[in-house]
Amino acid sequence: MTGSEASMNTQADLPRLAVVEVTGSRPDQREYHAKVQTLISRVTGEGEQGGWQVTRTAAADVSVTELLAATIDADAIVIVGGEDIAPRFYGGRTGYEGETRHYEIADAGQIALVQRAVAQGTPLLGICRGLQIINVALGGSIVQHIEDDGVHRTDGVPVDEILTEHGVTLVAGSGLAGSFGRAEISVQSAHHQSVGRLGDGLVAAALAPDGLVEALEHASRPITGVQWHPEAPDSPADQLGVLLALLGGQLASARFAGELIAA
Q: Does 229 qualify as catalytic in the annotation?
């Protein structure tokens, strides 16, 4: 076996992580798109460093069927941030304050992805919009606009300065509290919406100082969502790694359970 063949075999043995973004192109929002791409690159880069075989798919650039097919072999999934979810998916109205462009194909595809992950027990992490997608996919609602109190975002500043730092309290007994090993962590966030009614099977896993849900988990499936950005350059250095390690642990547990059933 040649060195290149050995390398290919090693790569093929790595667990597969599918990173799913909203769109691969925002020609009318170049600065915002550049910021989003920087954040996603951090997820893919750290995933690869952590021993994952990483793929990226832009949900708005393919059909729902194509997105599901592209991620069918994924061992774990990360749904990253982006624009607001179209209100029709959670029974909301258009015309609300701060409304962004909607990518309904991306919404439909990512919602289907979450629902399949729940059904099949695939570990899934949602970041910012990804948390909201999880909630909507399971029948939850969205608070369409939260007041700018300086906790969750900083308005009227350049895109690179929009993230704001604040603390969150991890709920005792949650998977996140166990992963971080403490009750309080500092996070970077930027969002004008939040989860409202929690979807079926979901429980709050972290709260902001003003009481908003900053993270959620599924009670019986390896599904986690965080409203903040662990992949932001100014986030604590270990934060994204902890969350990717959580996915890895969930995958290992699922595989072990499968082996027990097969035995």
A: yes
